């Protein structure tokens, strides 16, 4: 049997004036009364996340071929993918050759992308000092916001348009002031001017041709906006298909203009993520300081440089897509429940009419292996967007559509 040790105590004089005993028992520590425990909330990882990001909805991106293949039960080559404005012809053959003979993938890339910027200077007609390259134009959009916006600052957005602007503003704790486009998708310049005066947004993001409708911004309209006290970011991701000249060289004249471009559409390098932009020298200095040092991979720079070595291929592909756009438009006009909008890009926006549900139309075509884009936002709930593909892709789309009427 184990016996408990005897209770230990010591006597101490009492200074009390009461009639209690001059000596008191001193309780051992184990015998002290327990204080009530404070109930603490369990520590969770999300408590470290910035509050505005906990409320952020993720960007709704397009599903890749592998996921689509599994969901649809079809081989990737049996899917007609007309939902992401990708270039179906692929890059020039020089790209595959250059990637196959890549010598130094184990060495960090040039943080200044010197070779590519030099090639872009020749291609665009503006000196390399004005050009910055990014991991897709998306990275440059975010970089601009990180350099320009304080939390609580405002940007001006003109929906419907590329939703990445609104998304990146939310990531950077900025507020979005919206000036909706007119019914023909043109910009409401008068209202833009009023909002700039009243709300004092720091920058406005404009796309020309605009995604998702394919409309362009004429020089007169752009000049009016450039005369406002606001930074203008002009996204020219689809400019090659428009027949109008890029405004990259305008950044030498306008201190409040940035022009963004991409290799995703023109050179079919969407999977390698190569974007670039032209910036006033007074702005680009700070973007150089803030950008990630190795943001453009060795493979991406090699591929982009190789693509620029074959301008004839790039031109021929552009011409083929523009011609197919016109053919696709005529076919879509014949569909009784579609109202296509003229486009200067490599896609066509269609209003779904005659009581048809746009989302169901997209789902019905997907079951037949044809993917088109539908939007969940209210401005475009009744619309679908169709990317321009090869002639055989148009034929497959039209064959599937005819089964629905």
UniProtKB/TrEMBL annotation:
InterPro entries: Aminotransferase_I/II_large (IPR004839), HisP_aminotrans (IPR005861), PyrdxlP-dep_Trfase (IPR015424), PyrdxlP-dep_Trfase_major (IPR015421), PyrdxlP-dep_Trfase_small (IPR015422). It catalyses: L-histidinol phosphate + 2-oxoglutarate = 3-(imidazol-4-yl)-2-oxopropyl phosphate + L-glutamate. Residues 78-400 form the Aminotransferase class I/classII large domain. Its EC number is 2.6.1.9. Gene3D superfamilies: Aspartate Aminotransferase, domain 1, Type I PLP-dependent aspartate aminotransferase-like (Major domain). GO terms for biological process: L-histidine biosynthetic process. Signal peptide: none annotated. Coiled coil: none annotated. GO terms for molecular function: histidinol-phosphate transaminase activity. Pathway: Amino-acid biosynthesis; L-histidine biosynthesis; L-histidine from 5-phospho-alpha-D-ribose 1-diphosphate: step 7/9. Keywords: Amino-acid biosynthesis, Aminotransferase, Histidine biosynthesis, Pyridoxal phosphate, Transferase. Its cofactor is pyridoxal 5'-phosphate. NCBIfam families: hisC. This is histidinol-phosphate transaminase.
């Amino acid at each position: 049997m184990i016996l408990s040790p005897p209770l230990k105590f010591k006597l101490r004089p009492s200074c009390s004036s009461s009639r209690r005993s001059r000596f008191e028992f001193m309780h051992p520590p184990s015998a002290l009364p327990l204080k009530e425990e404070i109930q603490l909330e369990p520590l969770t990882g999300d408590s470290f996340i910035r509050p505005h990001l906990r409320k952020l909805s993720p960007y709704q991106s397009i599903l890749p071929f592998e996921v689509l293949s599994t969901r649809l039960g079809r081989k990737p080559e049996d899917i007609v993918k007309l939902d992401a404005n990708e270039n179906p012809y692929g890059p020039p053959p020089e790209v595959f050759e250059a990637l196959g003979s890549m010598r130094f993938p184990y060495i960090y890339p040039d943080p200044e992308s010197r070779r590519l910027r030099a090639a872009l200077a020749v291609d665009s007609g503006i000196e390399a000092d004005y050009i910055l390259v990014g991991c897709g134009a998306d990275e440059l959009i975010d970089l601009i916001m990180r350099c320009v916006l304080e939390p609580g600052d405002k940007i001006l957005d003109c929906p419907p348009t590329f939703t990445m602007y609104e998304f990146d503003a939310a990531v950077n704790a900025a507020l979005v002031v919206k000036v909706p486009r007119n019914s023909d998708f043109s910009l409401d310049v008068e209202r833009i001017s009023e909002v700039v005066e009243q709300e004092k947004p720091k920058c406005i993001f404009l796309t020309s041709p605009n995604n998702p409708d394919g409309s362009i911004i004429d020089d007169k309209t752009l000049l009016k906006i450039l005369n406002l006290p606001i930074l203008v970011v002009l996204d020219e991701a689809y400019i090659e298909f428009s027949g109008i000249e890029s405004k990259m060289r305008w950044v030498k004249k306008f201190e409040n203009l940035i022009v963004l471009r991409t290799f995703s559409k023109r050179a079919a390098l969407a999977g390698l993520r190569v974007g670039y932009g032209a910036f006033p020298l007074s702005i680009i200095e700070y973007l150089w300081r803030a950008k990630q040092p190795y943001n453009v991979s060795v493979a991406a720079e090699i591929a982009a440089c190789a693509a620029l070595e074959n301008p004839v291929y790039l031109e021929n592909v552009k011409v083929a897509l523009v011609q197919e756009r016109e053919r696709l438009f005529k076919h879509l006009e014949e569909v009784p429940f579609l109202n296509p909008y003229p486009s200067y890009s490599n896609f066509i926006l269609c209003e779904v009419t005659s009581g048809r549900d746009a989302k169901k139309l997209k789902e019905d075509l997907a079951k037949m292996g044809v993917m088109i884009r539908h939007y969940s936002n209210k401005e475009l709930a009744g619309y679908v967007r169709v990317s321009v593909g090869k002639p055989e892709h148009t034929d497959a789309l039209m064959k599937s559509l005819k089964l629905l009427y």
